[in-house]
Structure formats: C-alpha cells, structure tokens
Amino acid sequence: MILEAAAISKSYGSLPVLKEVSLGLERGEICGLIGPNGAGKSTLFRIVLGLVRSDSGQVYLDSQARKPLGGIIEKPALYGYLSAVENLRVFARVQGMRLSRPEARDLLEQVGLPIDRHDPVRNYSMGMKQRLGLAIALLNAPGCLVLDEPFTGLDPIGIRDLRELVRQLAVERQIGILISSHNLSELGDLCDRLYVLHKGEIRHSGPTREILRRATLKYQLYGRGFLGSPTLSEAGEPLSDTSALISPGPHSIESLLARVAAEPGVGLSACIPQLDLALLLEKQPV
Amino acid sequence: MRNLLSTELFRIFRQRKTYYAIIAVFILEAIIMISAYMQGREILDLFLENLTDTFEFNGNLLNGNLIVYLVLNSFWFHIPLILMVVVSGFLTSEYQDRTVEAVLLQPVSKLKFIGAKYMAALLFTAFMLALLIVTTFLFAYLVFGDGDLVVYLEGLSFFEPHEAFSRLVWAFASGSGTMLFYAVVSLTLAVLLREATATWIVAALFLLVTTLLLRFDFGSEGLNTYFFPKLTDTWQALFYVEVPWDAILTKSLVLLGYSALAALLGIAVFIKRDIT
Nearest to residue A77, comparing CAs of B264, B106, B58, B23? Predict the structure, then answer.
C-alpha cells in the first residue's frame, strides 16, 4: 500500500473525534471516504496530511519522494491576489522547485485551466480554483493525493469535470487518490473502494459496488406503460405511467428489470438507484 | 528558508495593503511637516518667549532638524501602530485565507515557515524605516533648510547643525530597534490569536499599555531600568547634552533579548499547535 493509516484516534478535549480508524490506499486506486458532516473526515485527512497530530495510531507512506502526499482540505486555499501562474510558482518555490513560466502553463493545461488568463485567481470560479488547487497538489509529483470534499460548491458540470480529472490522474499517472464526501452519489461511480465513517468510526468498507448495494433499497425507474405493469405493481407504487419508485425486495434488481422489460407495452429508459447514506451509518451489519 | 523568505517578500509587495501602509507613513510624515510649517513658528515663539529677553538667537529654529525631530516623535505611537497592523496581517491573512494550511501541505517544515515570517517581518520593518528616514531627512532639509536643533528634555538643549544631524541619525537607529521589537511582538500576537481583528485590538492595547508603563514607577531599580516598556524610549537619550552611550547600548541589547524571546515564544507555539 502506498498509504496506510493504522488505528488513528483523536479527541478534542473530552470529545472523541476519531476512534481507532484504519484505512489503506494502493497505487492507482481511488478510495472514497464517505460520512455525514461531523463524522471526522476532515480531521482524519488533516492527520494523514500531517497538519494535525493524532493521539494514537500511525500513518505509513510507502514513498521516498520529497513530497509523498499532495492534498486539498475542503476548499482550495490560494493567494487570491496572484494569478494562477504566480500561485503555482510561489507554491513551487516554497518547496524548493524552480518552475518556469512555460512549465507552469503546462501544468495549468494538464488540469484544464486556461493559460491566457493573467488576472488574480480571486476572480476564478470554484471549479477553476479546485483545478488550480489540484495543480498545486500535483507539484513535485506526489504518489498519492488526499482530497477532502473537493466537490463542495461545484455545479453538476464542475463535478463531472473534476471526477473525470481525478479518474485520469489515477489511471494515467498511477496516483493513489483518497477522496471524501458526504454525498454518496458523488463518489459512487468514481471510487474503487469506499470507507464509511460515522461518529469517528469506520462503519463499513469494501468495493464500491458492495457498499452501493447495501445503501440502495429503492430504484427510480423512467419509461412508459408503467400503470399496466403487474411486476411494478408488486415491487412498488407506480407514480405515473412514466415513472415509478420500486423496492426489489428479495429479488435482484437485474431480474426485476428483465421481467419489466419483457412485459408487453412497457418500455424502460432509465433506472436510478436511490442511495441512502443513513442505511450505511447504522452500526449493525446490513 | 531562502526560498520561503523570497516568496514572502514577493507576496508582501504584491498586496495592496502594503502600499496602503507606505502611503499611511507618508501621510503621517506630510501632516507633521505641514502642521510644523503652518504653526511651528507660533509654537516656537511661545516656547522661547522667556528666553528671548536674555538670549539672542541667530538663524531659523524652525528648520529641517527640528522637523526631523518632530517626525522622530511619531515613534511613540503612530509608526509602531501602523507597523503592528501590517506585520500581524502577514500571518492573520494567511490564517483567514487558509494558505498557511496550503503551504504546509507542501514539503515545508513549520519551523522554516514561521522563521521566514519573522525574517520577512524584520526586513519589511527595516524597509519601512529606511523609507521614512530617507524621505524625512530629504524633505525636511529641502523645505525647511538646515539650522540649530532646539530640544526640550529636562530643560532646553541646543545642538549645532552637524551635531544635530548626527544625533538624529543615531536616534533613528536606536528607535528602529524599538520598532523591530514591536514588529516581532505583533507577529507573535498573530501566532497566538490567529484572527486579524483580535490581533489588531490586542496589538493596539499592547502599544498603549507599554506607552503608559513607560512613565510608571515600579519602585524597583531593576524593573525601572530593564522591564521592556522602559526600553522603548532609549532613542530619547540621544538628545541629552551628555549622551549616555553605555546605557543606550545596554538597553538596546536587552530590548533585542526581549525581541528574541517574543519570537521564540511565537515559533514554539506555532510549531506545537495543530493547523486546523
């Protein structure tokens, strides 16, 4: 593993924030940490990134690089009065790198930022700031990235673009990426594995598809002819002829969809899992 | 450390507030000169009224040396206040924008980061003082010309032009030590408080209390001589007829020690504290 956190505990005064939390990350893997606000995600990431000391536990990094870890905590913190190139050069210089202007522009291009803007980054949109934050995190080629709530404040297009960029970094550069969110749908189709953190404890962990299956009891279907479907009548309450909310119950969603699709006069156009984070936060096995 | 320091200085001079501070110093300087030009003659006449019956004064006493001395008196409160506000902002703005966190996410040690901040604070203060001193002498001599310096310290003292110039230069040098002390203290307050408004209020309070304690009798020779508020007016001793060089040197070194202590406190707290 390129990154391993073992039995991390942290309290603020008498309030325990993390209780023996362990997680790991492989090269080229995207790992999600999901949990509601106040679960301890940011504290865990701050400990992993060395900003906060844990009360007990260890963080292991399998890297001899000068900068083994890059990261963004919550919103990217930038010097608002400097341009993007100047920000990159300042952050490079503080870690002893000499980044020429053409090199800085290359980095901006890699994260999909325009190279012809010279105005202060305080004028940038949140999506552009996130991209610049990523470019800064990537300075000195770290083996893994830790991104805390990187989708906060982004519009749907911004979220899609950032997800694409993160996936590209993992696949093309084999960077291990640990990413957190309180929104399961943001991480669902991005991460290889998920950890569920609640009240300072890891409640569940495993491959994303397993976690998503546990968190999904209902599906929203879109199509036509739903009112005359006997299968849908059994599995849920048709809302209208074109949409329905169903619970597969003991059946798998695959078999249920196959049965619906085979019914005469019924057509399916979309099936959207209704993810329920609260289900994952329960302590007993689900 | 050199890389951190150079980026600090680059960023300081890319921020608008730095230029506001420079403009504020110039405005202060201009107000002192204009008020001296408008009212200086009347004040001097009032000041010397009783002496003109006994002595005959040659030349103009409202001259460049007196103006420089009046600007020097802004070292009591105005200049340190501006410096403390600006210097503490070097760190509080980084806390506010969370760039402290962003820098420390890079392979940068906390010691080097905060060390570079103190170095930048000292260099910036030295730059501001150099700017103030050069422009004050330049404009004062250009507008008001040369002449004898009259100073009232436990009685009236008169210094011939070359003597006055030398004493004023040394007084600025000594006063600069006090300004560096205030700059270091303000950065330490920023480390402790982290929030800009709270730091400004405490810095202004520190300055006020220090100025008040300067005149306070602690009833102890040691405290009255070496407690830090008693060391902030050492530059005044340059205008006694006999300059107490040994005392000035000792007091300057003790104040340097206080500055080092304040910096060490800030560095220790910054290193120990989590970045949250």
Answer: B106
